[in-house]
Write a structure and sequence with these properties.
By secondary structure, the chain is an all-alpha fold. Helices cover 93% and strands 0% of the residues. It has one helix and no strands. The longest helix is centred in the middle third of the chain and has 40 residues. It is rod-shaped.
Amino acid sequence: MTKRKTDAMIEEAGKTIRETFVEKELLQASVVQRELVTELREL
């Protein structure tokens, strides 16, 4: 495997990890928001 191909694979893996992290954070924020709305409705 060439260095260029290896670098491209590493870059792609890093991009995937960053995208997954952002998606996880957005999902967590959505869950928190849903819980807050539920609590507000109960007040």
